[in-house]
Amino acid sequence: MQGLKIIFLGAGDFSTKVFEKFIEKYELVSVITPLDKECGRGQQFKPCLLKQSALNKGVEVQQFNKVSKEGIEYLKSVNPDLLITAAFGQILSDELLSIPKYGVFNVHASLLPKYRGASPIQAAIVHGETETGITIMKTVKELDAGDIILQDKVAITKDTTSEKLFDELADLGSNLLIKAVDKLIDGTITYTKQEGWDGTYCTMIKKSDGIINFNTTYSQLDCFVRGMYGWPFAQTQIKDKKFKVYKISKVNDSTDYEVGTIVVADNKYGILIQCKDAVISLDIIQAENSKMMESKSFMNGCRENLVGVKL
């Protein structure tokens, strides 16, 4: 079984990191990615990171808009032993799943059955979890419901952002994937059915999902800001100016101000806002067409009186 014919399916940063570690030990027949997308002002086609990495490493790349329709003949012609998916973002049909001899192994960034779906890294932080991890599972048609092969955990601390957790889980995922394939080859692999179901599906995050709701507690807001870090970032609007919020902190307990109101705005304290149970500081912000800075620095150059402004 040493000469397994393996095909890797993915697209973005997470799958690229997993791919680059995996091919240090195992060869691939090819990598499958979605079609190149138009981007930028010139609307030029740009390959995804995984495609760029695979080509740089001399691995064949195949691209399909919907692999379960357009890629079937290619996969049948290769007759692979194993498919691997990591942040691929497409539902695989029963026909496709039946092609590889040993099925499809998926690298999923949560401790299944928690956080099935497209945004498990962000969801774990936003919901205040103290730990999450990686699940290597055997894919079935139902979303993220297949048998578990391996799992491993990482802690979520008060300093964890989705960007940091992304890198940590990608590294853990690549190591765990290699272990799973090792077990397949040496015949010690096991498959465990997912037990229990807590209803935590998480959908694809849109830019609008980053808008801050100040009618929540400080703890919830802090988790939200850290969970949205990287993309789409927590966002708010003060008068006619939009801001990304990178970091917040608790200043003191509630005031008599209405929730969502700026209670202090100066170059000594920065921008302080009343949330549901506390006054919070917008520590690090970024105004549109500007650079990231402390809100104190922003207020140093702001000539408007923002106190009393409702967000």
Per-chain topology:
Layout: E1 6-10, H1 13-22, E2 30-33, E3 37-39, E4 44-46, H2 49-56, E5 61-63, H3 67-70, H4 72-78, E6 82-86, H5 94-97, E7 104-108, E8 116-117, H6 120-126, E9 131-138, E10 148-155, H7 162-186, E11 201-202, H8 218-228, E12 234-238, E13 241-253, E14 262-266, E15 270-274, E16 278-287, E17 292-294, H9 295-300
Overview in brief:
This protein has 311 residues and is α/β, with parallel strands linked by helices. It is built from nine helices and 17 strands. The chain is 26% helix and 29% strand.
What keyword list fits this structure?
alpha/beta, Rossmann fold, Methionyl-tRNA Fmet Formyltransferase, Chain A, domain 2, elongated, 311 residues, 2 domains
- CATH fold title of the largest domain: Rossmann fold
Number of domains: 2
Give the percentage of residues in beta strands.
25-35%
- Report the sheet with the most strands, covering strand number, pairing sense and barrel closure: 7 strands, mixed
Q: Mind telling me the CATH class of the largest domain? A: Alpha Beta
Helix content: 25-40%
Please give the count of helices.
9
> How many individual β-strands?
17
CATH superfamily of the largest domain: Formyl transferase, N-terminal domain
By CATH, the architecture of the largest domain is named: 3-Layer(aba) Sandwich
Strand order of the largest sheet: 5-2-1-6-7-9-10
Overall form: elongated
In N-to-C order, the SSE pattern is EHEEEHEHHEHEEHEEHEHEEEEEEH
Assign the structural class, choosing from mainly alpha, mainly beta, alpha/beta, alpha+beta, or little secondary structure. Answer: alpha/beta
Provide the low-confidence segments as ranges: none
**CA radius of gyration:** 23 Å
Average pLDDT value?
Answer: 95
Span of the ends, CA to CA = 61 Å
